[in-house]
């Protein structure tokens, strides 16, 4: 930092006067700021605790509207700028934002919301400390005004003393220093002051005398300069030797330097490594037409490109093949650039780099790529054959396996009808169990065929009304069990872009599960609806049936996985596997949340949609 003497003295004096008061003021303001920030942190934690408790139920039930009253109550605090609530599966759940409140530093706090041991979401609160720091800034301004007043008063007194005791004597010293720079050494410098400036002036007089003597000495040193010129010539000789060593170093590498005359199409210099590259002596490389003679026949057009086009464009680089003395092809990377010598005559300079190993690796890679394509084609044919065998197996299951089942069922029916008097109670019970088992086997075969068809059936999407499909299925269930008293609520005009046949199957299985699981529940209730979460529509089917333990949630969509025994509920355990495949065929997701002996909610999405609105107009 370059400061004048006047500025440095003023700065040092003011710093000595203001430093103690500045430190005291800074410590006081810092203590106030720490207290304000500590209070803000405590309030921040308290607000976060309130939101974590209040958002457990809305996040668990995916009901943003249930959490909005608490969010609006908390955001009424003028210090809070933004609150975001995120679901662990769907992302942003609800948000409140007041960006106009931001005036100071923003503090952010994120807390995890848990229920029943599972992390169901997070809450982030951003709180501004602007109001808390406004008073402190006001005190800082008052403190600054007091410091400035003190600076003005101190500055006037300092300038008065500086002008008389320091500035004018320094101006005289400066004049005498300029005389020294101009070599005006005959006038003596007289100083009668006994302070530091007087001492400096006396030293300047001593310097004048020494400088006068030094000039005489320099004249003698000029004679010695001629000797130094001789030493410089020796240095130039050493530099040439260094350049020679550099040339030898280049020639000892695998990169071959070369020079050429473009007018004669002839190499004028080539590194000695060229002999090892092709096996020809260096003298043969310098022959006219060497490149056009020993380039591969398919690459000889590069000789014209090298000597003609490079002279015009100034730079060139290409790959080509040379024929060695043994007849072997050598791949090289040839670089060239046009230069002008001292006589303004154009020459070519460049390098020859052996890339045969790299080219061989590229050829091996190409052969391997072709081999991979053959393997893929063979596996494709094998996959087509496997699909054909699967279709044949499905045909065998649907026809050949049903015949013995029908035979067993028919003969057991005959025994029950024609020989009922000859059979005791145990025999009739055995025959009834045989018929029941054949019915279950037939149902199992049908489920297997349906599951295998879902992987091959074409999905034809269109706009469908899920509410109408659900009402159709519920009416069918009520007609089969008119004695059931169950409250079913279906949200109106639920729309989706999906295959109507596949969605009818999926809804039938989901509603059949809800119908069965609420069979032993008093005040049974089933709800069908949708929620908009972060711009995405999530459909749900909810019941208050027997539910299941979430520890087994990863099994419910696997074929033949049952969480309840056959004595409790009927079925083969394949319905939810069919539902999952149908939803996945639509590029959607399906998941479930449940509490044992309480409720079950199945959620699913259908993202393949031409429009964002999932509710039909009334």
Automatic annotation (TrEMBL):
This enzyme's EC code(s): 2.7.13.3
Ranges for domain Histidine kinase: 396-610
Subcellular location: Membrane
The keyword Kinase belongs to this UniProt entry's keyword annotation: yes
SMART domains: HAMP, HATPase_c, HisKA, PAC, PAS
PROSITE patterns for the chain: HAMP, HIS_KIN, PAC, PAS
Protein name: histidine kinase
Coiled-coil positions: none
Enzyme class: transferase
Domain PAC: 316-367
Domain annotation PAS: ranges: 242-314
Domain annotation HAMP: ranges: 164-216
InterPro entries reported for this sequence: BphY/WalK/GraS-like, HAMP_dom, HATPase_C_sf, HATPase_dom, His_kinase_dom, HisK_dim/P_dom, HisK_dim/P_sf, PAC
Residues that span the membrane, as ranges: 142-162
Cited Pfam families: HAMP, HATPase_c, HisKA, PAS_3
Keywords: Kinase, Membrane, Phosphoprotein, Transferase, Transmembrane, Transmembrane helix
Catalytic activity: ATP + protein L-histidine = ADP + protein N-phospho-L-histidine
Keyword Cytoplasm included in the entry's annotation: no
């Amino acid at each position: 930092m370059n400061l004048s003497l006047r500025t440095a003295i003023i700065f040092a004096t003011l710093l000595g006067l203001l430093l103690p008061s500045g430190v005291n003021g800074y410590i006081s303001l810092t203590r106030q700021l720490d207290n304000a920030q500590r209070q803000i942190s405590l309030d921040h934690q308290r607000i976060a605790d309130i939101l974590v408790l209040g958002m457990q139920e809305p996040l668990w039930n995916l009901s943003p509207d249930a959490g909005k009253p608490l969010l609006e109550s908390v955001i009424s605090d003028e210090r809070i700028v933004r609150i975001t609530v995120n679901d662990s599966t769907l992302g942003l759940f609800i948000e409140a934002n007041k960006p106009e409140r931001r005036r100071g530093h923003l503090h952010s706090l994120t807390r995890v919301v848990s229920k029943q041991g599972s992390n169901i979401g997070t809450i982030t609160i951003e709180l501004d400390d602007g109001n808390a720091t406004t008073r402190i800034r006001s005190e800082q301004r008052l403190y600054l005004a007091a410091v400035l007043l003190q600076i003005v008063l101190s500055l006037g007194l300092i300038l008065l003393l500086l002008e008389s005791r320091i500035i004018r004597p320094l101006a005289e010293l400066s004049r005498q220093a300029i005389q020294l720079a101009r070599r005006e050494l005959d006038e003596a410098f007289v100083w009668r002051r006994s302070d530091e400036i007087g001492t400096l002036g006396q030293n300047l007089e001593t310097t004048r005398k020494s400088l006068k003597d030094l000039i005489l000495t320099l004249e003698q040193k000029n004679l010695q300069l001629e000797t130094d010129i001789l030493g410089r010539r020796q240095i130039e000789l050493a530099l040439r030797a260094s350049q020679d060593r550099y040339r030898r170093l280049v020639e000892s590498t695998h990169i071959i330097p070369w020079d050429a005359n473009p007018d004669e199409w002839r190499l004028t210099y080539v590194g000695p490594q060229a002999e090892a590259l092709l096996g020809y002596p260096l003298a043969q490389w310098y022959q006219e037409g060497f490149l056009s003679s020993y380039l591969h026949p398919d690459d000889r057009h590069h000789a014209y490109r090298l000597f003609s086009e490079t002279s015009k464009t100034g730079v060139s680089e290409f790959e080509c093949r040379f024929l060695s003395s043994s007849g072997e092809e050598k791949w090289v990377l040839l670089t060239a650039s046009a230069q002008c010598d001292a006589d303004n005559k154009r020459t070519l300079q460049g390098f020859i780099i052996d890339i045969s190993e790299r080219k061989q690796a590229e050829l091996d890679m190409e052969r391997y790529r072709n081999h991979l394509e053959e393997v893929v084609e063979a596996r494709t044919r094998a996959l087509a054959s496997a699909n054909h065998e699967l279709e044949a197996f499905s045909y065998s299951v649907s026809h050949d396996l049903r015949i013995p089942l029908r035979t067993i069922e028919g003969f057991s029916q005959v025994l029950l009808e024609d020989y009922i008097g000859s059979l005791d109670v145990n025999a009739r019970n055995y025959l009834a169990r045989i018929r029941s088992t054949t019915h279950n086997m037939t149902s199992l075969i049908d489920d297997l065929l349906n599951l295998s068809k879902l992987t091959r059936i074409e999905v034809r999407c269109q706009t469908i009304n899920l509410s109408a499909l659900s009402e159709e299925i519920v009416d069918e269930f009520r007609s089969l069990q008119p004695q059931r008293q169950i409250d079913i609520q279906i949200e109106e005009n639920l729309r989706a872009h999906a295959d109507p046949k596949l969605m009818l199957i999926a809804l039938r299985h989901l509603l059949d599960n809800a119908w069965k699981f609420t069979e032993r529940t008093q005040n049974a209730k089933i709800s069908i609806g949708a929620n908009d979460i972060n711009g995405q529509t999530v459909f749900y089917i909810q019941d208050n049936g027997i539910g299941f333990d979430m520890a087994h949630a990863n099994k419910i969509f696997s074929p033949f996985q049952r969480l309840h025994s056959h004595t409790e509920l009927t079925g083969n355990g394949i319905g939810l596997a069919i539902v999952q495949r149908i939803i996945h065929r639509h590029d959607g997701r399906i998941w479930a949340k449940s509490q044992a002996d309480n409720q079950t909610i199945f959620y699913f999405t259908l993202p393949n949609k031409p429009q964002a609105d999932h509710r039909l107009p009334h």
